[in-house]
Amino acid sequence: MIVEFTPATRAAGHARILLCGPPGSGKTYTALALAHSLGSRVAVVDTQHGSASWYAGVNGWAFDTLKASTFSPNSLVEILGTASGREYDALVLDTWSSYWEGADGMLEQVDRRGRSGPYNSGWKEVRPEERRMIEALLTYPGHVIVTLRSKVEHVIEVNEHGRKEVRRVALKPIQRDGVEHDFDIVGDLDERNALTVSKTRFPLLARELIDRPGAELAELVGEWLADGERRPTVAEYRDRALSDEQTPTTLRELYIELDRELMLGAPTLDGDGNPTVLGDLVANRGRALQAAAEAEGGAA
User: Fold this and answer.
1) Which residues of 206-236 are buried (b: 16+ CB within 10 A; e: fewer)?
2) pLDDT tens figures, 171-198
């Protein structure tokens, strides 16, 4: 294997934002505000019985929605592939917690598959599907705003008047530990809809406390993202993969390029309009062209 270092460049790209908070902290509203400020065509993957649709028309917001009812990791990859093909430039996933503890989500998948195998065999089987889901989210060709529910604990405190009162305290988000590391901005919303930035790649936002985040935050993020080097888009890679000029050899080269650019898991549509990821699209097309060439050679 040849190991080669190259000069670092910052790519112009899309935001990956994770919003965590307890019920009533404004996660859905904030996600929609950011999405409509960052993009022009917004899609919402709604896992909460269509609750996001209550905001249709608010502030002039117009968006398409998909009401998900089962939450396997692979189903989210298919949803993202379809959204990619329809060219939504901002996507809200409200809430990703459902893909952890909801019907057919990660915990159910692990439990179901682990019953017939040795201890922890379920996790071994489901982890690749989880990684595929996360890669599809991170490489989606548009802005992605994801919400997570936080567990809540009620505590009794003494207020400034010396009286006891019950206060809700947000605990850890409902998802696997560590999923926040790959996002550009991770923020915790409180009951006042104030956002504390707990992790960010944007220096201007480090440790900021933002009251009612929305258009101003999106403008800062958009300016930062735009000031970078342009890279090929998912749509451009897809067009290359489906080009009539491709051969098994050139498709292998394209696969290597996608691997180098960390784009193998990017969601897209295949030549028949079915949801897939770029790596599978290129590999399957290469195999099909190789089989066709071998069949033609045998017939000759």
Assistant:
1) eebebeebbeebbeebbebbeeeeeeeebee
2) 588 888 888 888 999 999 988 888 999 8
35-54 exposure pattern, b = at least 16 Cβ within 10 A, e = fewer: bbbbbebbbbbbbbeeebee
Rounded to whole angstroms, the Cα distance separating 285 from 141 reads: 21
| Percentage of residues of the chain with pLDDT beyond 70 | 88
* Residue 30 Ramachandran class (φ > 0 left, ψ -120 to 50 alpha, else beta): alpha
H helices present in the chain, as ranges: 27-38, 73-85, 98-101, 106-114, 121-138, 215-226, 234-242, 248-260, 278-299
Same domain, 30 and 163: yes
CA-based nearest residue to 187, from 175, 179, 177, 195: 195
Domain membership flag for residue 219? yes
Strands 42-46 and 90-94: parallel
209 DSSP β-pair partners? 196
- pTM beyond 0.85: the answer is yes
| pLDDT given for residue 170 in this prediction | 54
CA 169 vs CA 97, 147, 212, 258: distances in Å: 18, 18, 19, 43
Give yes or no: residues 39 and 56 share one domain: yes
In total, how many domains does the chain have?
A: 2
Domain boundary among 176, 209, 226: 226
Q: Report how far residue 58's alpha carbon sits from residue 54's, in angstroms, rounded to the nearest whole number.
A: 8
Q: How far apart are CA 235 and CA 181, in angstroms?
A: 26
d(CA 20, CA 25): 9
98 and 215 both lie in a single domain = yes
